[in-house]
Protein: Beta-hexosaminidase
Amino acid sequence: MKSLHFLPLFASLGAAIWPIPVEYSHGETVLWISEDVPFYWTAGAGNVNVGSGSLIYQNANIPNVLHRPRWNDDASGENKTGTEALSGDDLVNYAIAQTHRTIFKKSFVPWKFHPRDWDQPHPEEAIYISQVNLELLQDEPEDVAKPLAGVVDESYTLSLTEDGKTTIRANSSVGIVRGLTTFTQLFFKHSLGGAYTTLAPVEVFDAPKFPHRGLNLDVSRNFFSKNDIKRTIDAVAYNKMNRFHLHITDSQSWPLEIPALPGLSEKGAYRPDLVYSVQDFKDIQYHAAVQGVELITEIDMPGHTSVIALSYPDLIAAFNIQPNWDMYAAEPPSGTLKLNSSAVNDFLGTLFDDLLPRISPYSSYFHTGGDEVNKNAYELDDTVKSNDPAVLQPLMQKFVDRNHDQVRSLGLTPIVWEEMLLDWNLTLGEDVIVQSWQSDEAVAQIVAKGHKALVGNYQYWYLDCGKGQWLDFAPSAAANAWPYNDYCAPFHNWRLIYSYDPLTGVPEEHQHLVLGGEAHMWAEQTDPVNLDRMVWPRAAAAAEILWSGAKDAQGRNRSQIEASPRLSEMRERLVAKGIGAEPIQMPYCTMNGTQCQLGYAS
Ligand SMILES: *[C@@H]1O[C@H](CO)[C@@H](O)[C@H](O)[C@H]1NC(C)=O
Ligand SMILES: *[C@@H]1O[C@H](CO)[C@@H](O)[C@H](O)[C@H]1NC(C)=O
Ligand SMILES: *[C@@H]1O[C@H](CO)[C@@H](O)[C@H](O)[C@H]1NC(C)=O
Ligand SMILES: *[C@@H]1O[C@H](CO)[C@@H](O)[C@H](O)[C@H]1NC(C)=O
Ligand SMILES: *[C@@H]1O[C@H](CO)[C@@H](O)[C@H](O)[C@H]1NC(C)=O
Ligand SMILES: *[C@@H]1O[C@H](CO)[C@@H](O)[C@H](O)[C@H]1NC(C)=O
Structure:
């Protein structure tokens, strides 16, 4: 296959795929695509013949036409577990419908990527794309929509011939989904109607660098509607991320309905209507899974739980100490689950038994949190009455062991924040994934201990940083706090996010343990009004690092000059899809090659 890693600057205008594929070459032939372009389906190892598949979709009005038998139906006649789980068919059906919608309804006229005197292609000379062939090359695992990291092969090839035949091949339905996502990025809207590409012929081979590519959204500090979350998941999927981490509870509010413990949301939600019902939670998980995005639910504990005191006051120690809450917690209100309490254990048993079976159809993971536990809070815990690490550490070990045993017994793999391993020195199961946030050294330490790690150094991938303090300072303290920067200022612009290499400081023999990472949207100062622009397109910069790697094919740091017009184009595509992503440049900078460069190649 031809590959063109570095396109000449001018040729790269309007040739933008984000994240950048492993290999990508294209020509300059214009092809149009019509709304009744037929999609053909071929599946099965060794059964591949271009164009020989069955017609499965030829009109936006016929959505679910693909119903192939599941290969993994074995002769034993045993019923499958997790019957609500999605199949590869569900993913492909959804992706075809979305492809159609994106190209024909949610596209944009790319004037910002051409000089002022630019002419659009002329529709009267149109050659049309004749077919889109989707070919699944191999049997795929049954849990294709909720795999553990690395189980599902997301690679794909995409070929668009000059005479208009498109073929996307992959080893899994998720790979087909990723290939269709790339396919949509070849097309532009014409101002007179219709959609075209200027890039035929196209050849792509693509595969992700990291198997865990995610965004974490905190929906406790501020509430986000189901539609806000779904829209964010759509953008996650469009950036070929495959994990959506929902930090769904914290000290400030408990918006998740737990039928077995109804007081949690009845008393703990900000308002009775700001709750994710059982059905809402299911819808959100389904919406992610059907796009090849696994939703990872986090109930952070034992810290970050004080809201539980509103419904179960006996379970929480050091609740809402004022005014010196900062001795007991990272944020007000202070409070932590008691550490040596059978009532807490019973509560957690009930909570997990209610919640986790509702997660397992859609995910293989459950995040038990564990960040920023404040030891002083246990001095006020009547089951412990001590802040001595030597007293607390064995209790924390028991607490986490109990939780993880139950997580496993319900078929899920636990994830914890780095403090549990690195500060509390806990012995964690080999299966446990450790999520890092404080430093690159922490990542190196996690993998040195043989654990799988997720990166997301707050100095690069925290999207909340640089907005200034949300705490109010008394007049006597205000002068010292001026100009009210937050702890992780300055604002992390996309270039900073893009400069982060998840493998920094990780020796080669441990790099396979770095599963990937997540960008984090903590929501003290973000709500539905500014959500989109706080997250996008900056999270897209993290998405490209996670899909394509921080280094280019020559092993050099990726170039902003190469990336910025593509990210600008991705931003236009997100806006066209209804996501309020910020601009990263003015049109002048993208209209005629790189005219906004500062500094010279040496
Ligand atoms: C599978 O499930 C169906 C319906 O729930 C039940 O009738 C059948 O006996 C089950 N088969 C096996 C092998 O368990
Ligand atoms: C675009 O850049 C080229 C090369 O610098 C220049 O010759 C041309 O005049 C520019 N066109 C416009 C419309 O600015
Ligand atoms: C599919 O798997 C084969 C190995 O089984 C691999 O060579 C190929 O790159 C994978 N991806 C695609 C899109 O063919
Ligand atoms: C934990 O609680 C038990 C009683 O439930 C008590 O015997 C034990 O001393 C407590 N441990 C600590 C460290 O306080
Ligand atoms: C974990 O180990 C470090 C280094 O030995 C020690 O400083 C720290 O106090 C330990 N943490 C706990 C909670 O025991
Ligand atoms: C590449 O980026 C890293 C930061 O991730 C930086 O430390 C390093 O100096 C850069 N290398 C070059 C050659 O610019």
Notes: The CA atoms of residues 303 and 373 lie 5 Å apart.
